[in-house]
Design a protein that fits this description.
By secondary structure, the protein is of the alpha/beta class. The chain is about 40% helix and about 15% strand.
Amino acid sequence: MSDLKIAFIKTSDDLFESILTPNETLQFLIENDYTHCVILDNNLDSFIKWYKEFKLSKIKLFPGLEDKDFFYVARNSREFFQLLAHYNGLIEKPDIEIKIYKRNPDEEFGIFISRYLKKEDKEILDIYRFIGGKVPLKGNHFVLNDGNYDKYKNYFSEIIKQLPDEFIFKKYIHNFPVGESEDLREICERTLRNFQNVDFEKYLKRLNYELSVIKEKKFQDYFLIVSRIMELASKNGILIGPGRGSAVGSLVANCMNITSIDPLKYDLYFERFMNPSRNDYPDIDIDVEDEKRRDLLRILQNEYGKEKVILIQTKGKVSENKIEEGIKNYFRGINSNLNYKNYRGKGILRNLFYNRSVHAAGIILSRDNLKKMIPLREKDGFYISEWDMNSLEYCGLIKIDLLGLRNITTLKKFGLKRRDWDKIQNPNEVFRLFSEGMTAGIFQFESNEASVLSRKYKPKNINELSILMALNRPGPISTGVSAKSILNRRKKFSSIEYEDDQMFFQEDIIKYGIDNLMLNAYEAENLRKALSKKDLDLLNLATSRIVEESLFSRNMINKEIEYLKKFAAYSFNKSHSIAYSFISYWLEFFKYKYTRDFYDLFLSQSERKKRIRFLAEILSMNHNLSLSNLKSEIFIDPNKFNIKIDIDDNKIREKESDFYEWINENGKKLSNKNLEFLIKIGWFDDIKSRSQLINEINELSIGIDPELRNMTKIFGVKTVEGKKRVEDDGFAKAIMEYEVLGFNITRFEIEKDNIFETNSLEELIAKCGTGICFYESRVYNDKRYVSNGQIIFEVDYNVPEKGYIYIKDGKFSENSFFKVGKINRIIEIYKGFIEKENIRKTGKNICLRIFFDNYNLELKNSFIINDFPDEIVVEEKR
């Protein structure tokens, strides 16, 4: 017993009370010959995380809890659940043998609790507490070394005597709240009989196979409870997405209404979702309209009980900015010569927690009372597990992900219903928009890069759209796979086909393994998994049967594997891509079908910097914007952008005095900023020019108490004499609109020198095209704006007052501007096959270069219609 050593610690999960983390602490305790460790946090957050780390070591770990006057230490699982019940408020006093007073009445000192490893780490804890708004702790709180430990040795030995040889935490069996009478097979077969125009025997064979795997793994209840969530959502009018992740590859999931996609129709593999060789639970994620996610959680609470539906806690780490600020402020006046950037404690501080939050998607749904199983806290009427996602999984509890997705909410607003997901309408028109690159606001296709891919690839169906989604990822873009696919597409102008060396999805590895390596489906999935995880042992296991049965030599297998490794590094899940393609498709459908409503919604809800692209699309589609709801196709409602006031759009404002009457009628709810907003968008253009009205309200505000935010009070104090109206020109109006809206309503004429113009600015931005257009620039309030009379934007660098701007894939930079008279000629470069009938002659000094296979064609004074060049070379005059 004399050789035994015990450490009492607080962990970094007890926010701002410790900087101890599991791995580093375990190694330190081993190196310093400790045999026991007790956690004495004021919560139970950390125990499972630490238990996992310590379980295979020689250090015996025990859970404890700080209470009012005591530290409780649990010796076994029974006492641990007493601690848990006490912590969750189920019992007043836990039935636990070991109660350590915070100060031992028989000694001069209290229990020694370690909060950092070494004496010199005290400063790091003090900084951490400073960041958290807490004062430094008095005294030392390091892990005791031999000399310091002797002082406590006798007292600690008495505690060690009361501890067993080991603390064993028994994992839970997760019981989902499903009825015993529910039969998975019966439900699936009943649904399958309603499938239209399918090979029933083929589908039944697939269904039987999936059900056999699910039954063997005892996952039936998991499918039943997820299906029940879908049913409850449907009954309450909550839209659920078509599916997410590899679960879309399951026919059972489709029959249970968990997904809306027929996996056989799109050649999806069940093995990517669930493999007979895998023992872990499958992962079914559910996308739900984000504005209704909390409503769905309430519905589940009402259905199963508050203690059986819980959210999952996450913790946010200290940000780099807070660390920098904390170090500087802590040492202010103490050590002015400190090099903050190289401070030794930075690495430790980065791994510490700053706050608690809630997992965006994960919930635990159980038949059992979770208040008896998990440490919980309550917020906004929900219980939240204080064990994180990984700890819950280790305990045997299975999370279900309910992820709120804004795009599902948007589709619900347009009237989409769950049964409509796979009912494609107007495909030619919708895919035409994709092929033109008109994808602003379209899920997964919003970026310039995605729009360019879409425009060059010209998808014609959901399969091709899903391939395009897979290609729009860093891997295939950086490795050149996307560029090669686009080139192949341009050569053929036909449906995308798999070529000898062409792969798009993770599932293609499974297909390759089956077709080329003679593997069965789940062996091929193991191969895919081994490749993606770079697991050599699993890879050798996955390929061993091929070699054993002498189907291929080991050298041949190695050659095949090297090829597959390159693909596995960037491949995308086809099941996920197919499902998400339906979300993208329907958003594009509503853009085509209900153009006005689509842009009305997206213009106001999108980030300011994205609104220019929406305006460019609107103009490219020959629609107008206006403040008049009676005249315009796209109505700019001020309430959706800035103010919250009932505005009578139909009121006639004929006289100058109407402006002040309007203020008197509406000003009680109107601030100076709101009024300026209305003036700058042109709400009072019938009365007086915008610049005059801005000057008037500024004059009236001089000398008025800043706290007088009510405009009727300001106008009640001063009056303004009438002045002759001075008109603002179109450019000035457009700039004012851009200032407050992020885009312009007013369009105006500019005097163009269009000798080298290849496209309009709005078309280039809308379709993320490559081309050159004429512009003018103007400075207003010390900011510079650029416009072609149709669209306006701000630049933060100097550009010529008039000239040409080179747009590359919808983007530009400081070096993209050319002064009038400085350009000699333009060279447009195309890579790939070009139809002869698309080539036109022009009087402009534009040279056309086409690279196709090994051919290099150059045509002077020519251009191509219905397409954008891959790049443009601007030759300037010397």
